[in-house]
Amino acid sequence: MSLRAPLAAAAALAVLPLAGCFVPLERGREMEARIQRLEVQNVEQQRGIEEQRQAVRDRVEKVDQKIREVQVKIDELNQAARRSGADLGVTLSRLQDEFARLKGDLEVAQHRLVELDRSVGNLRAETEARFTALKGQGAMDAYEARQKIAALPRQDDKAAVFALAQQQEEKGEKGVAREIYDEYVRKWPSDPRSADAGFRAGELLFDLKRYREALLSYGRVAETFPRSDRAPQAMLGAAESMLRLDMKDDAAAVLGQLVEKYPKAEAAAKAKARLAELAPPPPPPPAPEKKAAPEKKAAPDKKAPAKPRAAEKKKPDPTRK
Predict the structure, then answer these.
(1) Inter-residue contact 169 to 208 (CB < 8 Å)
(2) 105 and 188 inside one domain
(3) Contact at 8 Å (CB) between 174 and 213?
(4) CA 20 to 30 Å from 264, out of 146, 201, 234, 257?
């Protein structure tokens, strides 16, 4: 038997206790780590549980507060229910009296407010009328026109406004009618009937000898409604207004444009006649030269021959004897 075999056996016997000791140490470390993790988890769980407990306590406190409030209301209702019918009657009567008093005060205040509004309206109308009178007849016409338009059932009724202007024109209220026509044009500038309204306003201004304003009204109609039947008439009216304003050359130019633009219109024929009147008369043709008649020789005067004078008698010479 060799020495190598006993040595191997001894080495094997020495390793056995070391292996047995290594296993328990590793497991102990794992258990400690696991315990630490569990402790951390436990702390976190305790914290979460505490937060939940606090939330529950808060909710319970709120519920208790609501219960206390409800209890107070119930106590108040019980106290009100215990009152006698006489107390309730007195309270109700007092409240009714107070309501009636307040209602009366409110009606008085409303009546005073209505009266105040009426007084302010009258004062405003009177003041406006005075200022309008100070501004002149044109302002008075505009004021009356606004009043009449305001009296219409519907101020936005185009037909009613135009009919009102025609009524005033028929009554002889030319200034008021003209203001209403102008208001029609201002309110509905693109309406086809505005051409008629503008033309009528120009005609009324022309009749009132307000030629500058008439020229503006005619011009607006001619420019805004060139395809309207009123356009050539408006151009003719504008030319006539220019003539009244000593604008002869401008009037002739407008009449020429009228004839060129609306050659078949009735106003064009009038424009041609007006142009003929405005044209300067042609100079008279030069008179034909007359041929000079030949001069006639003067015939000698046939007079009787002069008689010889009688011989004058000689005076005697005093020196001779």
Answers:
(1) no
(2) no
(3) no
(4) 201
Does residue 36 belong to any structural domain of this protein?
no
| pLDDT tens digits, 65-80 | 878 777 787 777 767 6
Q: Which two tokens stand for residue 64?
A: 């208790």
Residue 101 has phi, psi (to 5 degrees) of -65, -45
Domain count, the chain: 2
Angle between helix axes 174-187 and 193-207 (nearest 10 degrees) is 150
Tokens of 293: 């008649």
Buried b (16+ CB within 10 A) or exposed e, 241-255: bbbeeebeeebbebb
The pLDDT tens digits for 213-253 are 999 999 999 999 999 999 999 999 999 999 999 999 999 99
User: What's this model's pTM, rounded to 2 decimal places?
Assistant: 0.47
Residue 256's nearest CA partner among 277, 231, 232, 275 is 275
Alpha-carbon distances, residue 249 vs 96, 108, 238, 255 (angstroms)? 87, 72, 13, 10
Are 146 and 262 part of one and the same domain?
A: yes
Give how far Cα 274 sits from Cα of 59, 230, 236, 278, Å: 103, 19, 10, 6
pLDDT at 147 over 50: yes
